[in-house]
Design goal:
Blueprint lengths: L1 H58 L2 H12 L42
Length: 115
C-alpha cells in the first residue's frame, strides 16, 4: 500500500513537473518568436516614421513651398515679372542698325560671321 502511495505521489510530481515546465515552455518559445518578429516590424516602422518626419519637415518649409509653386504651378514671386523666351525662327534676321551705304569698310555688321 505504501508503495502505491509513493508511486502515486511520484506520478503526480512527474505530471506536475510536466505541467509546470514542458507545457509552458512551448508557449514561451512561441511567444519569444512572436516577440522577435514584432521587434523587426517595429524597427521597420520606426525607420519609415523617421523618413516621413524628415519629408514632412522639408515639405512644410516656406522655401520648399515657394520652390514647388514656381516649378510646378508656374507662379512668380511677388514683385517679379515672368518672361517666356520663345525659340528663334529660321526666318529671323537681325536688323542692320547702320545702312550699308553709310557703313565704313572696316565696320562690321553685328552677328555677321568672319570669313
Amino acid at each position: 500500500m505504501r508503495r502505491r502511495v509513493l508511486v502515486g505521489i511520484a506520478g503526480a510530481a512527474a505530471f506536475g513537473a510536466y505541467a509546470v515546465w514542458v507545457l509552458p515552455l512551448r508557449t514561451i518559445l512561441e511567444l519569444d518568436g512572436q516577440l522577435r518578429a514584432d521587434a523587426r516590424a517595429l524597427s521597420s516602422v520606426q525607420a519609415e516614421n523617421a523618413s516621413l518626419s524628415r519629408q514632412l519637415r522639408r515639405d512644410s518649409s516656406v522655401a520648399y513651398q515657394e520652390h514647388l509653386a514656381e516649378q510646378d504651378l508656374g507662379m512668380v514671386p511677388r514683385g517679379s515679372v515672368a518672361f517666356s523666351v520663345l525659340p528663334s525662327s529660321p526666318l529671323y534676321r537681325p536688323i542692320d542698325p547702320v545702312p550699308t551705304a553709310q557703313r565704313s569698310p572696316t565696320q562690321r555688321v553685328a552677328g555677321s560671321a568672319r570669313r
